[in-house]
Amino acid sequence: MTQPTHRPLPLQQVQLQDSFWSDYTELVRTTVIPYQWEALNDRVPGAEPSHAIRNFRIAAGLEAGAYGGLVFQDSDLAKWLESVGYSLSTHPDPELERIADEAIDLIVAAQQDDGYLNTYYTVKEPGRRWTNLYDCHEMYCAGHMIEAAVAYYRATGKRKLMDAMGRMADHIAEVFGTGPGQLRGYDGHQEIELALVKLYEATGEARFLRLSQFLIDERGREPHFYAEEWKRRGGVSHWSSVPQTQMPDWAYVQAHLPVREQTYAVGHAVRAVYMYAGMADLAAHTGDRALLEACRALWRNMTRKQMYVTGGIGSTVHGEAFTFDYDLPNATNYSETCASIGLIFFASRMLRLEAKSDYADVMERALYNTVLAGIAADGKHYFYVNPMEVWPEASARNPGRRHVKAVRQAWYGCACCPPNVARLLASLGEYVYSAEGAEGDTLYTHLYISGEARLSLGGGEVRMRQESRLPWSGDVAFTVETDTPQTFALALRIPAWTEGRYTARVNGEAAGAVELREGYAYLRRVWQAGDRVELRLAMPIQRLYAHPQVRSDAGLVALQRGPLVYCLEEADNPAPLAGLSLPAEAEITTRTGLPGLGEAVVLEAAGLADDAADWQEDELYRTAPMPRKTQRLTAVPYALWGNRGGGEMRVWMRS
Amino acid sequence: MTQPTHRPLPLQQVQLQDSFWSDYTELVRTTVIPYQWEALNDRVPGAEPSHAIRNFRIAAGLEAGAYGGLVFQDSDLAKWLESVGYSLSTHPDPELERIADEAIDLIVAAQQDDGYLNTYYTVKEPGRRWTNLYDCHEMYCAGHMIEAAVAYYRATGKRKLMDAMGRMADHIAEVFGTGPGQLRGYDGHQEIELALVKLYEATGEARFLRLSQFLIDERGREPHFYAEEWKRRGGVSHWSSVPQTQMPDWAYVQAHLPVREQTYAVGHAVRAVYMYAGMADLAAHTGDRALLEACRALWRNMTRKQMYVTGGIGSTVHGEAFTFDYDLPNATNYSETCASIGLIFFASRMLRLEAKSDYADVMERALYNTVLAGIAADGKHYFYVNPMEVWPEASARNPGRRHVKAVRQAWYGCACCPPNVARLLASLGEYVYSAEGAEGDTLYTHLYISGEARLSLGGGEVRMRQESRLPWSGDVAFTVETDTPQTFALALRIPAWTEGRYTARVNGEAAGAVELREGYAYLRRVWQAGDRVELRLAMPIQRLYAHPQVRSDAGLVALQRGPLVYCLEEADNPAPLAGLSLPAEAEITTRTGLPGLGEAVVLEAAGLADDAADWQEDELYRTAPMPRKTQRLTAVPYALWGNRGGGEMRVWMRS
């Protein structure tokens, strides 16, 4: 085992207090987590029941009844508990901890004597464990519960759930392996791979890392585990009892090739990025070059050929999946919120392997755009699908666009995205910094979010206070507090959106010859208490154009300022938005104070609109060209769309 | 019963001999009909078996075995036989007639003693007749066989099949009706409604018209027949044995409302237009004003809000259906060839009700574009789906575009479009003319296709010879041959694409004050043998723009010249075609002689192309605008696309 060169800062050491982000993180703490708990307990009026808690009660013998919900319903409780762990790390809350302890008692009560934990198989199909790895998410649920256990342990020091999940991992390692009588299988929905690395990091037990490696190593190998399993099942699936004559395409679960041979992002997008994150974790801990190279290739393909400008991934609803290079349709894409969260996981792991701002740029893009768009300002409504273009009537009446919701929905039957958003936002502090070197002699800042970090740097304890005005302006300041002067480097990410324009001043003076490497500016010096760094990142309004192979965006332009991608909404612009265009020469200005958007900086420009005044109602096609008229355009952050009623929305506009 | 004001000319009276169309009609006669016969007999190497003939042999007790193919497989044989009937009308062929007679003997041998004819229920589910009208196409198959019977009778005078189908119609009239013990049902796939009108026209038996009217009258009424039937079936369907908890939306089969209350084209597009054609037939024969008004409203909605510029209908693959007004996506549309054929049926019936060129304009648009695009130059390959835009890689790798084939396919498992194209082209002569008045004192020309028509006009026999150079030029001449001078009007359609510019000369002199009414120019005079009318229709190259509510076409332009819509193909233009644009000021010129396109007139213009030369491979988005460069654009008739290998295609181009 080797050590990753970078380590993230534990959540307890990063206290965020940010005028932009705290709105969201507070929402998670004060609204989302309590609301989710009610939902898990089937106490939200009008909402479909979750069944999650009840399933555990039935499995624990505390209640009679039938299993309810989807096969992976356990993971909802796990994700909630993980959020609780993160929340308690930064905001101790005895009452919440008491509720969580009780939930953990319940979970452990539902665990079987041999360590197995899964309420679906315990309640509904006892004796059928591990017979359908491809469909049934047993390890996926275990993975989420492991993540919850580690988060809760790190927050509270309580090991009960972590020990229980260690027993589950040991049980898995008994059933699965290369030995006689063992299954050489792996889960259809990757998740446990990265979770086991967390369990290894928390416990120091190398066997958990080895189990993760086994699962990664076996995936896609011949003879193909899923092919054998499919034949054993007689071609039926969990979702349909009608035997299929053709085997599924294993690319859907990224098992079409051994993972080290994969270079092209395919299949279900969430599974893909969870797996890539696990691969990067393993590469960091084992020094496995082939895994690292596969991660790099997959990263490059995904972010350079298959990613929306909002950091969304997954071009099709069919299988919630990638399609192929440059296929980025705007009105029918999937871009699941969870997939962008997984992309953030992957990016943050790649940053531990190599400090290249590209990873952080993408992480920031996904975070500030798709992930934020996924959650409503009230914290109770969510998008799973994050389209580039919405026409509400088409969402309602064209079946090919039915998956694209025009307004955020309350908690869904398959509640994957809301708790995923919650756990990401509750742990946001983990993504802001990392430290490099055994003695932590470089502190990296990947994201600009106000707050305070405490860590050991250059041999001593340092407190670094960040004050950021992102995303509305590019002014950031850092103040060092330390008892004794310390030598270390502060490595500041220079985002691509600055177009290389920034200034860094230390204690009011130009920082001088700053080393700029792979997108980070390194300020290395002996830092004294009270030293202050002022970073001014230029935040030009950017017109973005897509690669010419992206047919969907040909002739179109998108707007970005700082980390935020903008969009047109019908609330501010006349429909149909397709009739609007932004001429190349139009000056774009900023303004604030748009009603309903708080302090958001919005963009305005003198655009053009198709002038439909002289069209006859009954004229579908005509030879007279469309007259144009001037039209003020207002673009708002994509992160905030859909918070002011329904209506059309468009990211890419005619240029 | 009343008489329609217009009557089409029987096929025997219209002999087409046209340099453009004869290629296609000869292909049908010499290639398609023989090829289809082989297919029906399961003798096409490599093709999925049709089972159609074999099913009839089994039903007739001539062969043992199991039913094969879809529930409506019988209709394939019917459509073939209908084509044969049309072909024999204009091209007697004793050998083909012998084969057809044998097929008819087989069909009649498969008929049951009570008149019932359907091989699926006879062979596979005896005793289950009429238990699933919604799914199972029993009347649909009967309707096609009635059409075949009438066509064959008109061509040969042989009544055997027509009498048999009369017995089937009588059997249906026993089972269905408003009397005690009768079912108040109607078929899930409309077709028999228009077929029964043909049977009435051929036999003069009013009971067939009344049966058609019953089926139209009952449709969509409450208590809802399909709802009752669905409950009787226990919610299962022909396609799935899993009981559904929710009833289907009857709009899919246009049974959501009584037909006279329908004003909005919805549901499966082929079923819709077949029904509308039947409604128009009934309105013509019964003088039913409410039906006529419904037809007008549905026509207006469909052609003014939901029709592609190629005359295609059906915006979505889901249910092969209409969606809603102005929803005309270019890359995912369905625009089934059969739906445009049905649109032609509907248009030609509306022309019998009222001589308005709008109906003929649409008929011509659908015929010259979607229907022709549906068939390959070899006559053996077909498109079911007629997209506005094709990216072959997306068809292969994006599941939402999988229905859009980039190359025409050989005969499909569900062989609905190829035999439908065949029967339309074999009967093309029926669509060219109609005559008005009991004595036929006006001869209407709806389409400009060379050939000769014989009919009674103004009390005497007239032969009208048409020489047309469409679609390549707008020069058309008519020569009258008659034994004695006759007084009648020649009503010439002035297509909308002339933009009102045309000249008409009679015997070399300007025609003088020509009455122009509803798009037809009426030349009324005493016609002598040898009189010659020269019509010059302007054929400007038209730039077409779509209604501003059509979001998919915003900022785009399409090209049309005469009846032909044009498109860009990768064979002539650099991919990606999305990178090309046609500036408003670019002059467009015509040329001929493009290799592989025969005498087709193609369009050329100095366009622009995105210049991708300086894009980095790894750059998905960038701030530098795309440079443009000049690029010669070549547009070819949409009717001919896909005959020179695969590749991209686009109808709507950037403007």
TrEMBL record, chains A, B:
Protein name, as recorded: Glycoside hydrolase family 127 protein
Domain Non-reducing end beta-L-arabinofuranosidase-like GH127 C-terminal, chain residue ranges per copy: 542-654
Residues spanning the membrane:
none
Q: Specify the species.
A: Paenibacillus sabuli
- PANTHER family linked to this entry: DUF1680 DOMAIN PROTEIN (AFU_ORTHOLOGUE AFUA_1G08910)
Give yes or no: UniProt keyword Hydrolase: yes
> A Gene Ontology MF term for this entry?
hydrolase activity
InterPro entries noted in UniProt: 6-hairpin_glycosidase_sf (IPR008928), Beta-AFase-like (IPR049174), Beta-AFase-like_GH127_C (IPR049049), Beta-AFase-like_GH127_cat (IPR012878), Beta-AFase-like_GH127_middle (IPR049046)
Q: Which residues form the Non-reducing end beta-L-arabinofuranosidase-like GH127 middle domain?
A: 442-539
Lineage, top-rank taxon, reads Bacteria
Q: Where is the Non-reducing end beta-L-arabinofuranosidase-like GH127 catalytic domain?
A: 13-430
Q: Source taxonomy lineage?
A: Bacteria, Bacillati, Bacillota, Bacilli, Bacillales
Pfam families according to UniProt = Beta-AFase-like_GH127_cat, Glyco_hydro127C, Glyco_hydro127M
Q: What GO biological process term is on the record, naming one?
A: carbohydrate metabolic process
- What are the record keywords, sorted? Hydrolase
